[in-house]
Amino acid sequence: MLEVRDLHAGYGETQVIHGVDLTVDEGRFHAILGRNGVGKTTTLKTIVGLLPSFSGEVMFDGASVSRSRPFDIARMGIAYVPETRDVFGSLSVLENLRLAARLAAGTDCKWTVERVFNFFPNLASRRDNGGNQLSGGEQQMLAIGRALVMNPKLLILDEPTEGLAPIVVRQIFDKLKELKGEGMTMLLVEQNFHFATRLADTASVFGRGKCVWSGTCEALRADEDLHRQWLGV
């Protein structure tokens, strides 16, 4: 579903990623791991059009999206949950969801606002609260729910557990596991090694601005030398 070929990108004149290659198959869950500053978030932002690429190609569902605008990429079926969550603080939970759901109007909407409320009961009980009145965990649930009502073909999540209490991390884990069970195609960037490798089917390890290893999560968990070289502190 997603293929990234020899992608180079960065900020201004500063190059961050140097020839990233990445593949996410339909119906699979792929994780990207690596230390801070190795280009994981930069890769995601370039895929969804928030950063222009210097060179390389991003193919989604058989078509190039390398020069497409972010809202066009979203309409094609990629939903992005940013590390910063970016919920609209002045809008209620319900309004945040309804705004995102407009993008899926006229399509086969498997995910509706009410289904998101059933999926995240915490949000249902706070549907009239403003986005800035939610806890960090509730904001993360809202960010994921907002992506789901877009009815994406590919769900991309950047550090969904960052700054969350362990009980909320467990809730997010369970919900992503449910989505995986339903066949949702997902791409995850995550610092929590055990969280990522217990959920994902396959993984890529990033180092020095490129992908240095790809394979199954089972193989990744077993490779202690790889952990020490590219994932350890």
UniProtKB/TrEMBL annotation:
GO molecular function, one term: ATP binding
UniProt xrefs under SUPFAM superfamilies: P-loop containing nucleoside triphosphate hydrolases
Coiled-coil segments: none
Record SMART domains: AAA (SM00382)
Pfam families tied to this protein: ABC_tran
GO BP terms: L-amino acid transport
Keywords: Amino-acid transport, ATP-binding, Nucleotide-binding, Transport
Domain ABC transporter: 2-233
Family: Belongs to the ABC transporter superfamily.
Name of the featured protein: ABC transporter ATP-binding protein
